[in-house]
């Protein structure tokens, strides 16, 4: 028995097979990790070495060059770049795609062990592996807790004479701007100071953020790392009086030696008492400044010289290496990175639950609040939703076109079954291949929707041809499918031959477009299976058999066309077909007309292609609502200079972020209003971020960022709209 005949004779088995594919496909869809773009793995290892107090030139000469000499011969290394900054040097190593990162880490560590000439104060190098998934999926801002909108409105009711002063605060388009306006209003009206929280210098809370917020985020399932930016780390400062030190015959080296030897816990061995063993450990790490002051430096004439006799010990904060400002106010920011393969939606849900729990508990008690200012799932929901909508619209339009040309409800239903079956089957295949649900894979599905019915139309049309000859539905389904299944397979294989090679490309382009190739190949493959199994089986059951009476050709056609509500569509389709046939006959009457028609069609195609030819680029920019700018200040700028530079930037951009959205004057601004604005300085680099109130106008903020070049003499400004695929910034 021919396989196609077996399918037609066993419709229940075919139906069960389709239901199983649909069931497992839906389960796979629910379990597939959802993210914005596919994983792109570029094996990278970062080596970072700190040398407190060293200049960039010293870091390069004493550390970076020594390390590069040993690292340049690591197996599989394709690119090595280094950067030297104040007190820190960084080397980035890129390896061939597919490199075993565990082995690469061991090799890098082994080579670094061979470097012996490190400066005495330099720290041991820190080695870490990274990939494209290291991009943060969320950013949070730690700031003093401001009164809620309800509290402000109640205060406004209780003090109607202050209503005008509070109105700008209530109309602010985000919490950060509202807090800034409230502070400014309180400076001009002392009665509003009652609304301000207790004065808190958030920049002094970096250690608190690391111990509680960062640690809480890292405990969320699917989170690989969390980082704190801005603020100052606490430290104990020892301010030595050189005169008192010299009077006692001591030097700075003596002080350093005592502190380094005493500030540690050491093992004291063990003690056996009967059958019990007690492990002894001497505790020497300093717990307070008073402990440090009591350290004995020397004994002169039987009198101990304590550190407190020659120095002042106090708790303070380290000199910051950078800062974060949002709407002109210093703050602390925390980002979160996910693990490779983790579902971004589940991770974000866990992060938001942790944020809410901290905000309602620990942070509220301390007068603080944690605000989320960036959420990657916003773009995932919007992008995936848009592509999913395109798939539904494409499928609906395909069914309408089929209905228009086939003019049969039953035949359209038979072919329409191939679309959802193939799509759900594709989800199952993507899940089995370990892929994620992202805009690339969904774009492949959207592209393939129109191709899913090609094989079904060929098979069903041939079945109709036999059916119209008076053959029974079973015979028509069997013979019609047997005659064309070879051509259908050949057509599908040619399509697969175009996309399957992409699956074997290991470079970045191959990793990025692997999902679209896999989605299209899977969808077309399932459509082939549906066309030789589901289509003939459904046609044999859904088409009406002729019966014993003899019918003429028109009667059989009327049976195929279905219910009366399709009659107007049938007449429209008949006119269209008659018109096309008439035009074709007119063209075929002479060779001149045929040649002219072909020339006209080719010329029109070339002209339209030329006029509509898109610009060539590696990847589209996308519409991410974030404009990112890098400012390279003139040489010699310290942190104070960068702070003043930031204040200049904030004042220049203030007309765009300190606005009321219902103000008619907004229409007169040359650039769109800014919804969120931040300024970050790290080392000698400055970063500016802006989000537009209207996401569709985010790209217009790029030229606004470039206007800063006129206000920052000697500085280099590079800006671009953040890409959906995170391409680098481009200068303009």
Strand content bin: 15-25%
Shape: elongated
Tally of DSSP helical segments = 28
What would the CATH topology of the domain at 627-721 be?
Alpha-Beta Plaits
The biggest beta sheet is recorded as: 9 strands, antiparallel
Q: What is the second-level CATH architecture of the domain at 627-721?
A: 2-Layer Sandwich
The top-level CATH class of the domain at 627-721 is Alpha Beta
What does the radius of gyration come to?
36 Å
Mean pLDDT: 83
Distance between the termini: 69 Å
- What kind of assembly state do the chains in view correspond to? single chain
Structure overview:
The chain is α+β, with helices and mostly antiparallel strands and 732 residues long. Helix content is 51%, strand content 18%. The chain contains 28 helices and 19 strands. The strands form 5 sheets. Strands 5, 6, 13, 14, 15, 16, 17, 18 and 19 form a 9-stranded antiparallel β-sheet that branches. A 4-stranded antiparallel β-sheet has the order 2-3-1-4, with helices on one face. The chain has a two-stranded antiparallel ribbon with strand order 7-12. α2 crosses α22 (534-542), α6 (163-170) packs antiparallel against α7 (175-188) and α20 (473-499) runs antiparallel to α21 (508-532). The longest helix is centred in the middle third of the chain and has 31 residues, at 376-406. Residues 548-561 and 727-732 have low confidence and may be disordered.
